[in-house]
Amino acid sequence: xxxxxxxxxxxxxxxxxxxxxxxxxxxxxxxxxxxxxxxxxxxxxxxxxxxxxxxxxxxxxxxxxxxxxxxxxxxxxxxxxxxxxxxxxxxxxxxxxxxxxxxxxxxxxxxxxxxxxxxxxxxxxxxxxxxxxxxxxxxxxxxxxxxxxxxxxxxxxxxxxxxxxxxxxxxxxxxxxxxxxxxxxxxxxxxxxxxxxxxxxxxxxxxxxxxxxxxxxxxxxxxxxxxxxxxxxxxxxxxxxxxxxxxxxxxxxxxxxxxxxxxxxxxxxxxxxxxxxxxxxxxxxxxxxxxxxxxxxxxxxxxxxxxxxxxxxxxxxxxxxxxxxxxxxxxxxxxxxxxxxxxxxxxxxxxxxxxxxxxxxxxxxxxxxxxxxxxxxxxxxxxxxxxxxxxxxxxxxxxxxx
Amino acid sequence: xxxxxxxxxxxxxxxxxxxxxxxxxxxxxxxxxxxxxxxxxxxxxxxxxxxxxxxxxxxxxxxxxxxxxxxxxxxxxxxxxxxxxxxxxxxxxxxxxxxxxxxxxxxxxxxxxxxxxxxxxxxxxxxxxxxxxxxxxxxxxxxxxxxxxxxxxxxxxxxxxxxxxxxxxxxxxxxxxxxxxxxxxxxxxxxxxxxxxxxxxxxxxxxxxxxxxxxxxxxxxxxxxxxxxxxxxxxxxxxxxxxxxxxxxxxxxxxxxxxxxxxxxxxxxxxxxxxxxxxxxxxxxxxxxxxxxxxxxxxxxxxxxxxxxxxxxxxxxxxxxxxxxxxxxxxxxxxxxxxxxxxxxxxxxxxxxxxxxxxxxxxxxxxxxxxxxxxxxxxxxxxxxxxxxxxxxxxxxxxxxx
Lengths: 402, 402
Description:
The structure is a homodimer. By secondary structure, the first copy, chain A, is an alpha/beta fold. Helix content of chain A is about 35%, strand content about 15%.
C-alpha cells in the first residue's frame, strides 16, 4: 500500500460506478465497475497499442504484465513474492495446478474433491484424468465429510475454499495440514475467496491455488485468472500446458521445450493485455484497502442480511453457516420458488442470483455495498415473497452466469 | 458483407490509427489499431458491464459472443456456419485440436510436424504427449520434406500453413488430401493465414484448425484465438479441456461432465468479453473487404519489396519463396547482422522484426500499407545496410513478441 489507505465503503463506494436504480448483490459473480477502468483500457489501446504498436511489449511492459499483476494479487492471498502468475481462465489454471499436483504423487490415483466444488473444476479434472489414462479417479465427498475421506490413498485434495452456492467455507489451514500429514498435495480454488476475505497461502503451507478476478476483484467479464505455485514446488512443477511464454528462452524459438524457472513456466500463450489492464485499474483500489477491514464489514453486513430476511421471510431457509469462520462473503437461502423470486427481485433492481436447484444467492461486497443497501434489499425480498410475486407466470426465467 | 464493400487500402487505410513517423511492417505480429476499437470497448465497459452488470450476459449477448464472433471469423477462413468457436489463446486451441485429433486415431502414435512450425505448437504437443503417456512421439520433418514423411503410421499431421520466419506456405489442399488418403487427421495452424490470404477450410476438407486474431485480424495484444472443428467431427471430438462453458447444460451445475453438441464443447471457461469486443470492432472492417483483393495487393506489395530490397541491398538474401502460391503475406531476408539492423530500422520508424538466428521479417498488411510505404521502407533498409549502421555497438538488442 503505497498511497493513503482507503476506508472500506466510506472512501471506496465513490470509486465504483453503479446504476442509481440498482442494489447490486451479485458482485460474487461479476464485480461492479471501478471508475478508472475505461480510461486505463483506452490508454492501453490508444497510446500503447496504437502508438507504440509491437514495441509496447517492451516499452509498455506488456511482456512482464502477467508477473507484475501477479505480484499485486499475491498480497491479497498471502502469497510469497514471485509465486503468482496471471493468465487464461480459472478452468485452465486449476487444470494446470491439478496436472502438476498429480505429477508429484505418481503412485496414488485418487483426486478427492467435494460436491460443493464449482462444476468446472470437476469437469476439468474429469478431462485431465481421461487424458492421463492412468487409472486415476475423482472421488466426491460431501463438504462436511472431506476430512474423514483423507487417507494415504489420496493423491490430491482439490477443493474450492468457499462453496459457490451455500457460502460455506472450508478450514484451509486445518485441511492442508492434515492432507500434508498423509502425503497429499493440495489444490485450492480461491474463486470466492480472493478479495472476499484474507487468505494466507504462505501461512497455511498451500501447494497450489488458483482464482479468478472478475468476482470480488472487480476486473470485468472474462478477466484473467491467477495461479499460485508454492516456491518450494515451482522449479519442479510440470507445466502440462507448456506454451512458449513459459519456455526458459521464449525468443530463442528452440524446437524443444524447456520450462522457465519458477511460476513463469505456468504461462501459456500470449497474455490478454487489454483485459489485464482493466484488472490493473481495479487493483489500484485493492492496493489501498485492508482486507481485514473488508472481512469485518462483510461479516457484519452478512449478519444484518440474515437477521433482516429471517425476520421478514420465515419461508426462506438460510443455507449459509452462521458461524463467521465457516462462511465466505455471500448469504444464501433455499426457497422452492427461488428461481422466479429472484427474477422478480432483479426486475425491481435488487440483483442477486439463483443457483439450481433452489438457492437464492446474495453476494456481499463491502467496497460498494453498505447497511442501507442491505436493508433495502431485505425490504424488496419481503415484498416479493409476501406478495407472492414469485408465483406470477409472466416472469421469464433467464439464467445468469456465475 | 452487409454494408458497402471497402476497397483495400484506398478505403481502409483511413480506418486505422498509425503514428505519423512510422512505417509499420509488423502487422504479422501485432496488427495496427482500427479506429473504432476504443469506443467499442468503452461501450462494453461502461454501458454493458457498468450499467447492466451481471444481466449483460443475456442482455448484451456476452454468453453467445464466442459463437457469434466465431461466425464472423468463419467467412474469412472458408469454414461452415457454426464450426468456429472463440476463446483462450492459440496455444490452447492447438492443444485442444491435437488432443481431439489424436483421440480419433488411437492406434497410431506419431504426430508429424515440421521445423518451420511455430515453437509453441511443438511445445504444447510435447506437453500433451507427456500427459497422455501412451508412447506418442512428435516427429519433425523439414518443411519441404513433410509430404515424403506421410505414412499410415502418422496419427496427426500438425502444421502451420505459413512459416512464421520465412513466409513459406504449405499447400493445404494437397497435404490434407494426401493425409486423408493415408488415414491421417489434420490440424492446421492459421496464425499467419487468417486475414492474410483466402483460406478454404471447407473446400480442402480440413479436420481441425486454429488461429489467432492479434496479427492480420487487428484485434489487439492478447486477443482471443479461434478453433475450427469440421462439422463431420464436431459431435464426436473429445474436449480434453472440458470446462463448464462447453458443458451440454452449463447452468444445471451437474457434478458430471457432458459435452455440448458441436464446436460449443470446445469452449472452456468464461470468455474474455472485453478483448472480444475489440475483435468485434476490428471485424467491422474485415466484414466489408474481399480477401481476394487483399491477397492480390499483398502479393504485389511483396513483389515490390523484394525487387526494391534486392536491387538496393544485395547482401540481404531472400528466404521467402518468390512463387505466389508458395508464400504468405510477409517477406523475409536472411542477413548476418539482421538483429542489429532491425533495431536500427525500428529506431528510424521502419518497424519489422527479427527472428533468430538471422531473419529480418517484414509483414505485408494491405489494409493499411501501400506502395509508398514499401518504397520508403526499402530506402531505409538500404540506408541502414549500406551505412553499416547495424554494426554500431550502441543499438540495444531488445526482442519483440511474435
